[in-house]
């Protein structure tokens, strides 16, 4: 026996009440029994299933071949025969089966027969309809009649392609890879209203992530469907005509006004619902498969980033700032959820998809993950500046290797990849001198600095920045009068003892070298220890740095760097130098705003056993700040005189125009000090508020209770100290003077935006002191530093921090100009810095008219 369930096809709603079993007449030839169903079941559709048990006794032998059952419908349940005399409506003859007759129950065996009632518009809403089972070969006798069912007409919805039937889930995506961007889909549906009770049937289309919504979830006033459904179409009109053709609705997940997104459909996995309502009854059609809406982020143009700023071959000795950028294309994410991360890998890897990149064992994480927010709208937001000076060596590109940068932009659903062209990296060592010896004629001299003069016996601080990004290197510094013959390590080393001395040596000799590496930032040079230097005069300072991380001191294995200008040595004829019980090292410094200086306090007890020591210093408040003023003096347990006991006094206090530093320490039993580090303190230099060089002093106090003294072998005595303790030369930060002519104008005066950029960066330096001293206050609402040039185009920039830069000038109506490379040192006045070079570094002499670039 076969069984069949009730189904919904979409033409009307009907309630059928079958009464258990109903045999409306019996005949020896056969019986028919309609099967009972739940009398509360609601059926809707063009067709409705019914089932009936049939028996038939040897119909072919009794009545001939093709004898069998015929089924009719009628609104009257009392007919004993069903034929045309009863005024049967058109199409009320329901089924015939093969050859027009249903054969069933051969040999008296009962068989269940399943078929469908085809109603269409044959009956009015509210009609009660019955199904008759008849035997036409015995005068259309009615052998069974079903319980009646009530016809309830409602609009029916036929979803069409591609909602259903569908070959699978459909994806709409507003972003991501260009070839995969699809934002529209044509939704088809047909609405039929059998009785045309409502000439124009309203239709709405909704999206919902729940697939079990029914017509009961719809309300007409106000229109709503489900709790979180999204209405994607305005009310549509349908004529409701029988068998009407499909209606098209073009659905776009993004709506624009011009090029600006006005609205968008939230991402999700949706079913599509078509809802029709005729004023009384509603019905729905639902997609069989999922419509996925995504807003994948996008970055780059056809998967390509701009070339990183700089050449396709970068030597990190000259460029430590790497700008990975996508400024020409930008990035997009309609729902503003995306984050961006940057990676790099060897060029040979040639990754095409994010999963390959993330699985690579040779990739390097540039940004440390997805840290860049996509939402920024400025050009500066479409780039990442990678400062190689702050990168751990394991994450650096390897020297003499070629890489590709990859940008991944990621939201909850998608990760999109874009990549740069190839870049080859090399790591060379470098030494940068952070002071200018002076204006004496010499190599790479700059204007504006008075020559440094060092008297024999002074300890001068040589301030420098040395680095090799991928490994530690060793440094040797020479002071020499050699010029053309002294360009290489071997020549200088051979001249030591004549007109050359090794500065990081206890006595100037190469044999007594003291270790100096790229981890150091200054050298305290003891000029009085250089026994081989006996000639007063001008001297160059040379720095040699190794290339391979070993102390192999040859011409081939070292790079040479020369401080600009020459410094001057005096007093070299003196052989007897003062010997102090206490002194500050260094005792001669050139400094500038922001410079951090460590001063060591050195003690020599002249053979005595020291149990207690005290000293006091006065520091100019206008030129220095004390690091950690609550505990200004620092020490280690291994330093002289320091064990378990803390100092009796370790304080600082401002008194008028000076900072008073106070130190006292007792330790028993004592110890002998021979030019031994006692303690140290640190200061940070302020600006001297002058366009020129100024001088100041740090002094040992020697009044009242504040005087230097020690207790040695039980006896207290005053100790001799130098006056001043430290000579300080304060240099102003660097200045730039230049000129910007403008094409087509006689009066060059104009507001110009000036940007000081580090090499390799597209962003101006972030230095509020520079900005505040150069930005014209009349243009507070404009980004960047605004400078007004004079009639001849001249300008001046001041308070520029020490460094190597590019200067960029921009003004309305003209192409931007630049000047590269500018080495700015404290006290320097750089003249003739005219930012009129184009992007190919050709000097155009003036800014050319055109759009700002």
Q: Which helices and strands occur, and which strands form pairs?
A:
Elements: E1 12-16, E2 30-34, E3 42-44, E4 47-56, H1 59-63, E5 70-74, E6 93-95, E7 111-118, E8 128-135, E9 141-145, E10 149-153, E11 156-159, E12 170-173, E13 184-192, E14 201-208, E15 218-220, E16 223-225, E17 230-231, E18 236-238, E19 247-252, E20 254-257, E21 260-264, E22 268-277, E23 282-286, E24 291-294, E25 298-299, E26 313-315, E27 321-325, E28 331-332, E29 339-346, H2 354-359, E30 364-365, E31 372-373, E32 383-387, E33 401-410, E34 415-426, E35 430-433, E36 453-455, E37 459-467, E38 475-480, H3 489-495, E39 500-502, E40 522-526, E41 537-546, E42 558-562, E43 567-570, E44 582-585, E45 588-591, E46 596-603, E47 609-620, E48 624-626, E49 649-655, E50 658-672, E51 676-685, E52 694-700, E53 709-712, E54 715-718, E55 726-730, E56 734-739, E57 751-758, H4 768-774, E58 785-788, E59 794-800, E60 803-810, E61 817-824, E62 829-830
